[in-house]
Design goal:
InterPro entries: N_methyl_site (IPR012902), Pilin-like (IPR045584)
Pfam families: N_methyl
Helix content: 25-40%
Strand content: 25-35%
Order of helices and strands: HHEEEEEEEE
Organism: Marinobacter lacisalsi
Distance between the termini: 55 Å
Oligomer: single chain
Strand order of the largest sheet: 3-2-1-5
Number of strands: 8
Protein name: Tfp pilus assembly protein FimT/FimU
Radius of gyration: 17 Å
Largest sheet: 4 strands, antiparallel
Keywords: Membrane, Transmembrane, Transmembrane helix
Amino acid sequence: MWRNPSAAGFTLVELVMVIILIGVISALGLGLFARSSTFSPLLATQQLESATLLAQQAALAGNAGQDSLSVSSGSGEFLFTVGSREPFRIASGNTSLSVNGATFPITFDHFGRPETSGNSVQFTFSGEPTYQVCLSALGAVYRGGC
């Protein structure tokens, strides 16, 4: 068969679906390692980053109802919830979470930016050691202070 060389490549829909699948697989794969009885603040920061990226990908794909992130703590565990999905649980141990710059749920717009009135959001897992995660006003998620 003859193929037109200008028609080579991937469509935007294919690329977005691959990004969403990678996010889902990484969120599920992280769960395999989170079932241990000891708490790691680093694990919580990684789960927060993964959940944030999953909510951003849903917003970019136009999946209304799946484009929000919520983190709560109670009865010795942290709950990470993306949209209406089943929350992911991690034992909190002696660690507490403080959030500066937003209230939950954090919703993302169609550009993947958090709808937090242009403010960055600082997450701090206080424990031994203490870890910080920043969600910038433009949607970048990274470890460290804002």
